[in-house]
Amino acid sequence: MIRFLMLAFVTVVCAPTFFPLVVLADDGAAQKAVLVTGASSGIGLKITEKLASNGFHVYAGARKAADLERLDAMENVSSIRLDVTVQEEIDAAVEFVKDQGRGLFGVVNNAGVGSISSLATGPESDMDFIFGVNVYGPYRINKAFLPFLDESDGRTTTIGSVSGFIARKAGIYSMSKFAVEAYTDSLALEIDGNGVHVSIVEPGTFKSGFAVSQAARALAAADKGDIELTAEERTRYEGVRVRNATRKEPDEVADAVLDLMTAENPKRRYMVTPNERQAQAAITAAMRRLVQLNHDQPYNYDREGLIAVLDELLAEISNDTGD
Ligand SMILES: NC(=O)c1ccc[n+]([C@@H]2O[C@H](COP(=O)([O-])OP(=O)(O)OC[C@H]3O[C@@H](n4cnc5c(N)ncnc54)[C@H](OP(=O)(O)O)[C@@H]3O)[C@@H](O)[C@H]2O)c1
Asked: How many angstroms does the Cα of residue 112 sit away from the middle of ligand 1?
């Protein structure tokens, strides 16, 4: 009897998580669900469109009522009110996904914001703000949704940046993107072997709402006297709309996310830049740091040693990807 009651409890109470209803796509295959944070604009919206038009059901996180309504009207998309800095909203999103009965195959930690202030003189609140979204965001979201991914042998990715390799001025943003590089590798080590794949996408500069909202915040903060802008910075921020309009749409970033959600052997890192110059700048910056690390210390590699390590790593990655 006790065994029967326990079985009944597990079946009724835990059913949505452990025994998800199978929702079928148009072609009859089970439809996998993916959560995308920051789906209201730019890269997050492109990823939502790409996944929804390629057989996935997308839980699209957004914050404003008009965005939620717009996303909900899209085919294969259910919007979720989700500010990644608000734990109650994350908890409610977990319940929502559970109630939908599809389980969850993927998480795309896309929500992100840019920094506006100097490391030397800016307010600490900018650090809290940027890290709250860009670093604590993926950390909180993954923690909340990993039980679903464990269940589905699913995949989680974070939209990092080439700024995770190239440190720039007003560097809180770079700091946050460097942080998610380490976060990705450490999380992968931690959960390695349990079937969940962890990756990171590193876009270069693409058209989105990012630079425009960053500029609006910077100009408003300067007008309030919270930060100081040089004349050159002010001109740069004021011209951002014009520059943004000339940038490439982030379709290739969305293609990378589709690949990592569908490939048999997804990569750990997907760098996607609009041109050769940005890709090579990121690779050179990473190599410069490596050369500085090696230089002038008692246990350094000589040139041949460095080349041998490089050859080993190249062999390792082509074995991983089956090249
Ligand atoms: N565009 C680029 O060139 C570029 C390059 C490298 C990396 N990235 C990265 O790509 C990601 C997406 O940025 P984007 O370029 O597409 O910029 P975007 O158009 O400004 O989109 C940012 C998204 O993040 C959301 N967001 C901001 N704070 C949030 C919070 N607290 N909780 C939940 N969502 C929040 C925004 O929602 P609201 O609309 O409600 O504000 C928006 O949906 C970011 O992680 C960014 O660092 C972008």
From this structure: 4
For residues 245-256, average pLDDT: 97
Task: Compute the distance between CA of residue 280 and CA of residue 277 in angstroms, rounded to an integer.
Answer: 5
Nearest to 248 by CA among 46, 40, 37, 39: 46
Q: With CA atoms as reference, report the closest residue to 76 among 111, 97, 48.
A: 48
Q: Cβ of 195: how many Cβ atoms within 10 Å? A: 13
**Ligand 1 neighbourhood includes 176 CB (under 6 angstroms):** no
Q: Over pLDDT 90: what percentage of the chain?
A: 82
Chain centre to alpha carbon of residue 191: 18
Ligand 1 pocket test: which of 108, 208, 248 has the largest number of ligand atoms within 8 Å of its C-beta? 208
Q: How far is the CA of 110 from the centre of ligand 1 (A)?
A: 6
pLDDT the model gives residue 295? 98
Whole-angstrom Cα distance, residue 266 to residue 291?
A: 29
* Catalytic (active site) residue 173: yes
Q: What is the pLDDT of residues 58-98, one digit of tens each?
A: 999 999 999 999 999 999 999 999 999 999 999 999 999 99
Distance between CA atoms of 182 and 172, rounded to whole angstroms? 16
Instruction: Name the average pLDDT for the chain.
Output: 91
Top mutation candidate among 36, 37, 40 for ligand 1, by most atoms within 8 Å of CB? 40
- Which position among 59, 136, 139, 173 bears the catalytic label? 173
